[in-house]
Write a structure and sequence with these properties.
With 531 residues, the protein is α/β, with parallel strands linked by helices. Helices cover 42% and strands 16% of the residues. It contains 21 helices and 17 strands. The chain starts with a strand and ends with a strand.
Length: 531
């Protein structure tokens, strides 16, 4: 009888962005390795923190006990844990329960690579780095009761790896989409990233495998795919070739890519318009001193030029910012918000810096005067230039931006409103946070867009009234309502009916980019429209 190995992961949620790809890759490697395929039965067992069986538990101890019971019921003999900052503590507790029952535990993932010494006491074996060669070797030795002096080196060829999607280790349809590896490695050395100590090279998965995975996505009618490459466009020719392949095989699937702005040109920007997709681009900061300290090159003029190419071609893109970076101040962080939003990103994602063990930034934290949490998620508490109070204010701006700009679908009109009010983006968001607090508007939870829109209009109107610019209110309300209805129609497919004060052909035109010109030159004509 084959021995039972369970590869497990505890996810924040069950979604295309959060599926157990790491655990599935290990299960696939065991399943297809010559050493183990005839003696081991594998299973991928997934848990999520949002599942009612776990979310109803009050402590990590109770969560660990629930996972332990599930692993016992599935008759695990060896359990492989995929450990991340959000599940490390729960998995340590689970492993101790399993070990007491004589079940062998193996841990891998970013937390193991970062904390091998700290995790030794919680698991029987640790596997750092890639596990597709080491874990099959290890489980075969455990089952055969062989002496284990050391694990083999990472001599992994991506040509030899089987796809966990193609061999059935994981079904993307179960998660409503897929995380997709096209390559491994990163040519950059950003200090806050695990890749800061990795090899400065990119290894590519073979096109034959990629084509077969696309065929599977097409067959299963996968709605969305998140491409994991940290820099999808590092090789422009390959990027364009893959876009053409995607357009041919899965024309209706929506793709998310991470890209670097400095490698975007007109040809690549135009290529992205061939498929339904969005890019996420790491700006991280507009403070050149901060970016230099974390080893991230930045040319402001080139960045603006290339982002403008995306806007000109109509490519959806978002930007990322990090607060708490070395040399960053609250003032320079707010200037970063102004710079980012001036470029019309579809979304602006703002994060607190995590000083991750195992990164170059962690090793230099004392030198860079970073004070941070000693437990996951290792957020910065304060720096020599960014106080704890500044961190709190940055969190408030993050909440305001997520609610008003991102969830509020404000990109088409946000800059127009700010310009007409003669107010900078950061101050606008700061004012909105105070307004939300005064009016008991909850910014930290999911809210239907129509409800957000009502609050957007009330807040914007209050600013116009405060500044004595009442003449802009009806035009501003029309622009917000029209674009809001358009976004809801796109999102849910339902026909939207709205009342406007001005003719829709002018609302939906370049005239609406300048409210002063608009109000002075366009005559009001009220009426209902259907989108």
């Amino acid at each position: 009888m084959k021995s039972k190995v369970i590869c497990t992961s505890l996810l924040v949620e069950k979604s295309p962005q959060a599926l157990p790809l790491g655990a599935a890759c290990i299960a696939s490697a065991i399943k297809n390795n010559q050493l183990t395929k005839d003696i081991i039965q594998t299973q991928v067992l997934t848990f999520t923190l949002e599942d009612k069986n776990l979310s109803s538990k009050n402590s990590d101890t109770e969560k660990a006990d629930y996972i332990y019971q599930a692993l016992i019921e599935n008759k695990a003999e060896i359990v492989c844990f995929s450990t991340f900052v959000w599940n490390r503590n729960i998995f340590e507790l689970t492993s101790k329960l399993l070990k007491a029952k004589g079940i062998i535990t193996i841990a891998g993932g970013p937390e193991v690579t970062a904390h091998p010494q700290e995790l030794k006491k919680s698991f029987d074996y640790l596997v750092s780095g890639e596990g597709e060669v080491k874990v099959p070797f290890l489980v075969k030795a455990i089952i055969n009761k062989e002496e284990i002096k050391s694990l083999p080196a990472d001599t992994l060829s991506l040509e030899d790896l089987q796809s966990p999607y193609l061999d059935g280790s994981i079904d993307p349809a179960e998660f409503g989409g897929a995380l997709w590896e096209l390559a491994r490695g990163c040519p950059f050395k950003c200090s806050y990233c695990y890749e800061s100590k990795g090899e400065k090279k990119v290894r590519l998965f073979p096109m034959k495998r990629i084509e077969k995975e696309l065929d599977l996505f097409a067959k299963k009618n996968i709605a969305q795919v998140f491409v994991l490459d940290p820099t999808y466009n590092i090789n422009k020719d390959r990027a364009i070739k893959l876009i053409d392949l995607i357009a041919k095989k899965t024309p209706d699937t929506f793709y998310y890519f991470e890209a670097r702005a400095e490698y975007i040109d007109r040809q690549l920007a135009r290529a992205f318009t061939k498929i339904p997709c969005a890019l996420q681009i790491g700006l991280q900061s507009a403070n050149e001193e901060s970016l230099k300290l974390v080893n991230r090159p930045f040319n402001r003029k080139q960045f603006v030029k290339n982002i403008n190419l995306l806007n000109q071609e109509g490519v959806i893109f978002g930007l990322d910012l990090i607060y708490g970076l070395p040399a960053e101040t609250y003032k320079s962080f707010r200037e970063g918000i102004n710079f980012a939003l001036s470029l019309y990103p579809n979304n602006l994602e703002i994060f607190c810096l995590s000083v991750l063990p195992g990164t170059d930034l962690f090793d230099r934290a004392k030198e860079l005067k970073l004070n941070f949490e000693d437990k996951p998620p290792y957020h910065v508490i304060n720096t020599d230039r960014f106080s704890a109070e500044d961190i709190k204010h940055a969190e408030e701006l993050t909440l305001a931006c997520n609610y008003f700009y991102n969830d509020g679908h404000a990109v088409p009109w946000f800059n127009t409103i700010c310009q007409s009010l003669k107010i900078k983006s950061d101050l606008f968001l700061k004012r909105f946070y105070s307004y939300a607090k005064e009016n008991k508007i909850s910014l930290g939870c999911q809210t239907a867009h129509l409800e957000i829109e009502k609050n957007q209009i009330k807040f914007v109107n209050s600013l116009y009234q405060e500044k004595g610019l009442v003449k802009y209110i009806k035009a501003a309300n029309d622009i917000i309502r029209f674009n809001g209805a358009l976004s809801r129609k796109t999102e849910c497919g339902k026909t939207q009916e709205i009342q406007l004060n001005y003719p829709v052909e002018y609302i939906n035109s370049e005239f609406s980019l300048n409210l002063e010109f608009f109000v002075s030159n366009v005559k009001m004509k009220s009426g209902k429209i259907r989108i």
